[in-house]
Amino acid sequence: MHLSEFSSERCSPSRDAIGLSKFPAATQKRLFRVLLLALLFGGIGHSQTRTVVSPLRLSTSDPQLQRAFDWAKDQALHYVSSGQDPVKDWYEAALPGRSAFCMRDVAHQVMGAEALGLSVQNKSMLMRFAQSISEARDWAGYWEIDREGRPSTADYVSDNDFWYNLPANFDVMSAALRMFAWTGDSAYTTNTVFLNFYRHTVTDYIRRWQLEPRNVVSRPRIMNRHLASGKFVEARGIPGYREDRKDFNLGTDLLAAEYRALRLYGELLRMRGSAGSPAFDFQAEGIAQIIETKAWSSPAHHFYNALQQNGEGVGTGDAFILYFGAATNPEHRKLAFEELRRQTREAAPGIEEQSYRPEIFFQLNAPEEAYSQLMDLSRPDRERRDYPEVSYAIIGSIVTGMMGVNVVPAESQGTDQKLARKVVVQTLPRLSIHTSEAELDKLPVRQNVINVRHLRDKSSSITNVSGPTFIWRASFYGSASYLMVNGKKVQANRETTLLAAPVVSVDLPVAPGHTATVAR
Questions:
Q1: Residue 179 near residue 35, CB atoms below 8 Å
Q2: Can you give the pTM of this predicted structure?
Q3: DSSP 3
């Protein structure tokens, strides 16, 4: 399926694969929709012998937001497996009915899944991807795994003939380390399966596919061909997530994902007290330099979607640069953000790319744009809104974006550092003008279950429903000398975001069973 700037058709069936290409285009479309409905409601998917529930609940004054959340929660839980399959704990992260999970989709769905209490499923699927890398596949994993625990036959013939998009290793690695930060589960940083996956990804994988800063711009489009011909030999190592064009040898989404993975690996080594982090920091800086020079269009004020072998850029690729936090030049970051804002006034892109937008806009403090994207993604007549990624992305963006709940280093010194031994639970409300108040209940965060309530951007409350005492960093956009903590004046800490917006905050402990309130 063609998508204007981004495509993940390998996580969906093509029309050719299901025999529709012989029909006229209009007939293809009607039949394709019928097939989707059959897959969704005809029992073709995985066996479901138990009802999966989640205690997560949103209560809000905004009926549109309430409907969007309730729909997304129910839809996401519909895709959770019964646990009866050979692969055991998993949820669908590909086309409904495919009974499979795809690397890119899982990497994007994990946060919504975590909020819904699907921590076991997240860990199981991420570990299977980590286990699947192999030197025989040039350190690539399985792009898509089915409910039997095998590489999906839609994408895999043999180790020499399979579909693979190169950002995937980096994307899954970033997702696993984000889950470590959120859950505190030490397996993500001590289990040898994960550690080997991280190490091979930032060393052997980079070398094998010529992704080092000195080689990446001039690398061939398709490398490491083991066969002269085959079903997927032209797709064994696509240098980006975009699949509808072949006139590029380097996607900027690949650069962005690689940059973030290298940064995270350096942070992981420092956190573990291991040597070698400066080398990965240096390599990340080299990738960032390419992004800010080769991948930036000065005349158009945006990042390219991809680079051709002659060095020319094509398309617009701001979404993934911003999603991975790979824009290190503040002026370019701001202009890319404005370009993405402008794009929301045009026809929506494919639903996969659009599903990233709410989180990006919330994180960059554009709640009105984020809200409009949430509403568009969740409207009943939105074509393909039943794609699993949509519902999980909506939940994730409401939790980490709108409610601004994140686990962050206690001392990050104004950087975008993600990993640290000492962390705090931060809240930063980003409610739109449509939402005067919102409360998120029964949210699992590390060893705790918490409730969070915001009254616009004026007041926040947090309840430690269960678990040990934790440190809450209550944050608000704007400037202030002090904040009111449970009715008492407390001096506020000040910092600025990556877009130079001022933020004030206070840190305070929240004991089990206690509620704390911070207001301007």
A1: no
A2: 0.92
A3: -
CA separation for the pair 419, 182 (Å, rounded): 10
Half-sphere exposure of 507 (CA within 13 A, CB side): 13
Distance CA 461, CA 30 (A): 49
User: Who contacts 158 (Cβ-Cβ below 8 Å, separation ≥6)?
Assistant: none
**Residue 221: C-alpha distances to residues 166, 234, 236, 290, 291 (Å):** 11, 9, 10, 17, 18
In whole angstroms, give the CA distance from residue 150 to residue 142.
9
Task: Report whether 407 contacts 446 (CB < 8 A).
Answer: yes
Domain limits, the chain: 9-398, 423-519
The pairing of strands 164-165 and 236-238 is parallel
Query: Quick one: which of 216, 308, 214 has its CA closest to 256?
Result: 216
Report the b/e string of 370-395 with b at 16+ CB within 10 A.
Answer: bbbbbbbbbeeebebbbbbbbbbbbb
pLDDT of residue 512: 98
Query: Residue 132 is inside which H or E element, if any?
Result: helix 119-132
Amino acid found at 495: E
pLDDT the model gives residue 387: 96
Second-level CATH architecture of 9-398: Alpha/alpha barrel (1.50)
Block means of pLDDT (10 residues each) for the chain, 520 residues, are: 45 43 44 43 41 94 98 97 93 91 98 98 98 98 97 96 98 98 98 98 98 97 96 97 93 98 98 95 98 97 96 95 97 96 89 97 96 97 96 98 98 85 97 98 98 97 98 97 97 88 96 98
What is the DSSP annotation of 33-89? Answer: HHHHHHHHHSS-S----S------EEEES-HHHHHHHHHHHHHHHHTB--S-STT-S
**DSSP β-ladder status, 470-477 and 502-510:** antiparallel
Tokens of residue 398, six digits: 């409401």
CA-to-CA distance for 10 and 183, rounded, in angstroms? 30
Instruction: Output DSSP code: residue 276.
Output: -
Query: Which two three-digit tokens encode residue 304?
Result: 């390219």
Q: Which amino acid is at 90?
A: W
Q: What share of the chain is helix, strand, coil (3-state, %, to 5)?
A: 40, 20, 40
CATH architecture for segment(s) 423-519: Sandwich (2.60)
Helix (H, G, I), strand (E, B) or coil at 144: strand
- The amino acid present at 76, given as its one-letter code, is A
Is the Cβ–Cβ distance between 510 and 470 less than 8 Å?
Answer: yes
- The answer to whether the CB of 46 falls within 8 A of the CB of 421 is no
Q: Which residue has the tokens 């646990």?
A: 83
DSSP label at 397? I
Distance, in Å, from the CA atom of 111 to the CA atom of 178, rounded to the nearest integer, reads 8
Distance (Å, whole) CA 222 – CA 234: 7
**How far, in Å, are 9, 56, 193, 317, 395 from residue 255 at the CA level?**
21, 35, 25, 11, 27
Q: Rounded distance, CA 359 to CA 406, Å? A: 12
pLDDT at residue 177, as a whole number: 98
Report angle CA 402, 408, 410 to the nearest 5 degrees: 135
